[in-house]
Specification:
homodimer, 144 residues, alpha+beta, two-stranded antiparallel ribbon, 3 helices, 8 strands
């Protein structure tokens, strides 16, 4: 059966062949994280029903939760008006989206002229990815 | 009085000096839109309390609502774990964030292999920006 990929061609991919993808928690409405997708990642996300991103630092597909178990089950995939941003409504397995062990990646808020941490670490990264950090997304300073 | 800009230096700006900024509705939790900010735009957003973006198509600061009146009053500014995405919690004046006249920009949902429009136009762009389109953000095919 031929696959109809027309919907993928409707995306305005960047020169690098990427678009930002926002993961939003289906229950709480919180914005959990932003990562990048290429054509293959978006297709894999749609087909598998779980979020797959493109890791710019590791230069490969990144099946969210492949190391941590913190899979994102995808309830819907949305596209914005100029076809260059994806919005995923997800069920965040384990309740932790961020590689720092927090519920979400936006854990700092600007107060005056300072970024203040407002959200607690729920699980230490060493416990999530193994004592040596494994090839945790955070290794190398990137959340990917 | 010297301004403390250290918080701006903590951002991981892209090679183009930009970061994506998500605007989320403070009331509904809906993700309204994504645009881009440079250093000046983020600083202006923090100082003015209203969202200011960088228009990549027009190559100038874009004070959201400058044409449409659909200003975004900023309640909080958040930063993600790898310091390269901004999340704004906003009060959307007029209830319309998208240049298409919809409440938000993510008005298409993937169903099977088709993008399906799920959200209505609340006000025709011609009524928002003037009959000739003015220099509406949408002109030229960009949401900026």
């Amino acid at each position: 059966m031929a696959t109809n990929d027309r919907w993928l061609r409707e995306i305005n991919w960047s020169q690098d062949g990427l678009v930002p993808a926002i993961a939003q928690d289906a229950e709480t409405g919180k914005v959990l994280m932003v990562a990048w997708m290429n054509r293959e990642a978006l297709k894999a996300t749609a087909e598998s029903g779980a979020a797959v991103y493109w890791s710019r630092s590791r230069k490969r597909l990144w099946r969210k939760g492949e190391e941590s178990g913190h899979v994102q089950k995808v309830r819907s995939i949305r596209l914005d008006c100029d076809e260059d941003v994806i919005l995923l409504e997800v069920e965040q397995v384990g309740g932790i989206a961020c590689h720092t062990g927090r519920a979400n990646c936006f854990f700092r808020r600007l107060e005056g002229s300072q970024w203040v941490v407002t959200d607690p670490v729920l699980k230490e990264p060493g416990q999530i990815y193994g004592a040596d950090g494994g090839d945790a997304p955070g290794k190398g300073g990137s959340a990917e």
